[in-house]
Amino acid sequence: MPMYGDQGNKLVQHAKRMQNLAHLPPYQTELVRAVTREVRDLDKDVASLLEPFQGSFDPSADQSTACTLLVNHLSMRRNKRCLLAYHRTRTDKLEELVWNGSDVLDLAGQQAGGVANGAAATVDSGASSSLSPQEEDYVRQFGDLLAAYKGQWTDIDLTGSLEPPRDLFIDVRVLKDAGEIQTEYGAINLTKNSQFYVRQGDVERLIAQGYLQKLG
Amino acid sequence: MSYYDIDSILTDAEKIPCTFQLDIPDLGYLDNTPNQPLKAGTKVNLPLWLAEMLVIANTGGPDNKTFVTFDLPRALGNDVVQALKADPRAVPLRDQSAHFYGLATHMMDLSEEQELGSVLRKTFVTRAAEISLHARKVGGGGSKGKGKDEGSNLGIGGAGEDFLRGLDEWERKLFRKAHDGAKSGKEWMESIKKN
């Protein structure tokens, strides 16, 4: 027998599983909708329970109604907590991905020119995204926020690697076309399957985003 | 325990046996009979998030009753407590409840079980020592050898796996932390030697 709160619990179990994953599983649109619908139904129940009392409900005079109201209220509160926790777990994960420099919106794997000098900036969302439209918006704006924050220090890359590099220059192979990038030593055109000997600092971001692979 | 804590929310979904103290026409669905009233005296398993408030909420009537009364869940029943007193390491807590300690803490807030607290404290301390022992062993075993009873001179070879399977969610976290700690420590030592 399904009970109020069961759907919300499923949502939280999704969140629990998500905590141990590297990627972000698809947004549970249906489940979220079911839980919000449940809240709306409960609210309607409460309204119709209270209607005959015309705003002068005395709990001690009608204990069974008082108990029903309490149960309804608690169920709504529970659902709210489940919904908020689910979304918060996801946004935490999204923020982490943005900080790591992974191209969150690029999950559909479309070509994006000019990614080279922008962070996870403005890429149009693919058709089969695992984010909800609101989440895509969140990521975009959080990315902008982070870029603005990082912009305050020109000589330090806040999202750069914490590992001190062993070599200044490294060999890289291009895994997918990344367009042209500007370096101190001129422009390099990164076309798929080509190989380059470049300064690590110039391509770190592209490696993190999966465009290049470090060799050796 | 934050409002957003996933484990805390899942703990609140654990059910405890409750008994309703009055007839309630609209709550029949809690006892699988949606179209009939819920009679006083009906026993229903309710999730903590619901039960917790119902057992403390006062009906507001002259006799100062609460809506429901509750019993300790089987996970904290006499059988389990006796087994824990005998040997905390021999009880697979996970079979009782995946959030055993969380459930127990909630129950102690609601009831006045004096003995339970001390039994649980002893249980956790004893098991924590065992957990750390296993965690370090796995960390030291290296990633290549998946041999089950390597280093079983401690007398915890195959039985160790059973023990680890019986950890509740909180203990699992402890195990993971201890294990990761031992592993990172080892990796750090090795990187020092290399340079």
Task: Describe this protein's structure.
The complex is a heterodimer of chains A (216) and B (195). By secondary structure, chain A is mainly alpha-helical. Chain A contains 5 helices and 5 strands. Chain A has helices at residues 6-18, 29-50, 63-99, 133-150, 200-208; strands spanning 169-174, 179-183, 186-190, 195-199, 212-214. In chain A, strands 4-1-5 form a 3-stranded antiparallel β-sheet, with helices on one face. In chain A, helix 1 runs parallel beside helix 3 (63-99) and helix 3 packs across helix 4. The longest helix of chain A has 37 residues, at 63-99. The termini of chain A are far apart. By secondary structure, chain B is mainly α. Chain B folds into 2 domains: 1-71, Methane Monooxygenase Hydroxylase, Chain G, domain 1, CATH 1.20.58.2050; 74-195, Up-down Bundle (Methane Monooxygenase Hydroxylase, Chain G, domain 1). Chain B contains 8 helices and 3 strands. Chain B has a 3-stranded antiparallel β-sheet with strand order 2-1-3, with helices on one face. In chain B, helix 6 (114-140) packs parallel to helix 8. The two termini of chain B are 43 Å apart. The interface between A and B is medium-sized, with 29 and 28 residues.
Radius of gyration of chain A: 25 Å
Helix share bin of chain A: 40-55%
Number of helices of chain A: 5
- For the record, the CATH architecture of the largest domain in chain B stands as Up-down Bundle
Unreliable spans of chain B are 141-156
Order of helices and strands of chain A: HHHHEEEEHE
CATH topology of the largest domain in chain B: Methane Monooxygenase Hydroxylase, Chain G, domain 1
Beta fraction of chain B: 5-15%
Number of strand segments of chain A: 5
* Biggest sheet architecture of chain A: 3 strands, antiparallel
pLDDT averaged over residues of chain A = 83
Report the radius of gyration of chain B as a whole number of Å. 22 Å
Low-confidence sequence ranges of chain A: 108-127
* Structural domain tally of chain B: 2
Q: How are the strands ordered across the major sheet of chain B? A: 2-1-3
CATH class of the largest domain in chain B: Mainly Alpha
Strand order of the largest sheet of chain A: 4-1-5
What is the N-to-C order of secondary-structure elements of chain B (H for helix, E for strand)? HEEHEHHHHHH
How helical, in percent, are the residues of chain B? 40-55%
Number of strands of chain B: 3
Largest interface: A-B, 29 and 28 residues
